[in-house]
Each structure stands twice: as structure tokens, then as C-alpha cells.
Structure of ATP synthase subunit a, chloroplastic:
Amino acid sequence: MNVLPCSINTLKGLYDISGVEVGQHFYWQIGGFQVHAQVLITSWVVIAILLGSVTIAVRNPQTIPTNGQNFFEYVLEFIRDLSKTQIGEEYGPWVSFIGTMFLFIFVSNWSGALLPRKIIQLPHGELAAPTNDINTTVALALPTSVAYFYAGLTKKGLGYFGKYIQPTPILLPINILEDFTKPLSLSFRLFGNILADELVVGVLVSLVPSVVPIPVMFLGLFTSGIQALIFATLAAAYIGESMEGHH
């Protein structure tokens, strides 16, 4: 039987593909692990921006809101409406999760175009959006999977697994496969769009005068925001689906 050697070769091929890199990267060696320093540095900057902005805006709430307070109240209202639309009346406990995902992805996507990359000189490569690295997008997609399993099990108990045999037990393999493909689709969609946007802008900047890529950069900012909205909407929809049953 040649099935086992073929399977081993297939897995080895997938492992080799996972090591393919686009451009130069800067790594930190921590123990026996290589850590992608570019992603960590930009992620820390994004987290600092979010925490700093929220702290400044809401540390002293006013009866008559300031501009900053107004802005964050609008953002919170938007996230609440998004969560309620996708999850339903039991959306309350999930607003913070959906909001965290949306804001981190939104600012991360924009950081690739707006942060002055030359401020921090790296031995190799340059700073880029954290979401143009597959490890970041997978790390965002996996908690989403845990969240919708947790939501379904919390509401329905073990009866949650009954959805896998609906509307007929024949669909059991397909229904199981669907749950495995959800985090894959979330992570690869976000990764592919952000990576493609940064590659296109990088190529245009290297080939034509700096004024020409500006419209493309503005288009990239728009699509970056759309990608954050799509990720948050799908995450909320998956949670709502797990609480309501199979659609």
C-alpha cells in the first residue's frame, strides 16, 4: 500500500509551503523559537494606540460629551448594532469580543498604510500590518471558533451537537467540515486581501512616482476597513448561528 507514504509526502509538501515567505522578515530568537518581530512590534503599536485613545477619551466622561467621547460612543453604538443584528437579543455578553476583534483588525489594517515605517529601522525588512501575516489572522480566527462553540454549548449543552445531523444525518460529514472551514475562510480571506493590498502599493511605489500610488493607497484604506467589518460580521453571525441552531 502506498497510501501512507503518499500521505507523509503530502504533509511534508504542506509544511514546506507554510515556510514560503514574501519579502524579507526580521526575527527574534527566543529559546528554540523564531518570533516574527515585525508583527509583534506593529501589534504592540496598534494595542498602544487603542488603549491610549480609549483611556484619553473616557477617563473623564462628561454629561455633554466631548468630540473624543462622542466618537467612541458612536463606535460602541455601531458595534452594538452589528452584534444585535447578527446574534439577536442575547448579544450583550458578546459586544466586547466583537468590538475587540473589529477595532484590532481595523487599526492593524490601517497601520500598514498609515504608520511611518522608517521611524524604526530593522536589520531586515520593514514594518507592515500585522494582518498581512497568516499567523496573526489564524490567531484571530481560532478564538472566534472557540467563541461560537462556547456560545452554543452554554445555551444548549450537549444538545448543541445535534445540529450536525440536521436536517438529515447524511450531512454529518459536511456539517463537521463546515465548522473546520470557518476559521480557515476567516483567516485566509483577511490575510490574502491585506497582503495583496500592501504588495500592490509596494510595487507601484517602486515603479512609478510617489504621487501615482496615492489613489491606490486610499482604496486600500477603504478595503482595509471593509475587511475588518466582514471579519467582525462573520464572527458575530457564527456566534448567533450556534445559539439559534443550524440554518
